[in-house]
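Encode chain A's predicted structure.
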Amino acid sequence: MELDSKIENYILENLRQETRLLSEINRETHAKVLIPRMLSGQLQGRILSMISHLIKPQLILEIGTYTGYSALCLAEGLSNDGELHTIELNDELENFILKYFQQSEYKNKLHLHIGDALDIISTLPDNIDLVFIDADKRVYLDYYHLIIDKLKPGGLILADNVLWGGKVIETVQENDEYTRGILAFNNFIKKDKRVENVILPIRDGIMMLRKI
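Encoded structure for chain A:
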């Protein structure tokens, strides 16, 4: 789901620029980490920051830290005594993430959990204000079932990659568990009366859900 490169450059030129720390994460991720396209990047990062600022969350949950870029963007809108819990499966990224978290002005508000989110979510506090899901596409719906009762009424869930490179409108290959996972999530959400949702065609698609 690529933007015309000239339009994308125009958008980026007219955004608030990355902080030094976010720029360093961006650079080092592209230089040293596999699949750097997984990084949220400047446009999506500013959207996450804007949404977080609008609701001033007390408690944020992120599923899928990767190298920490999106967590730091989300943390920008935290209330004064707020906190962010972020879960990353890949323990090889732990030192990378913590290096940047410890340089951040939000370092005392950030809690990194290494392990499987399906095991960790139930151990985290209730009354979550904002959730960002960007992890294993095969189990998005499993994440949702664990999250929904921990989310405050009026709370938001943002789910990344819900258009999955356009594969959601193509014939699904029998062994394509990732597309099937995204489709199962999308199809369930549109019928779930506990939430209302909209899909934003930004990058690979972000679904925004509000708990009623």
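The first strand starts at residue 59 and ends at 63.
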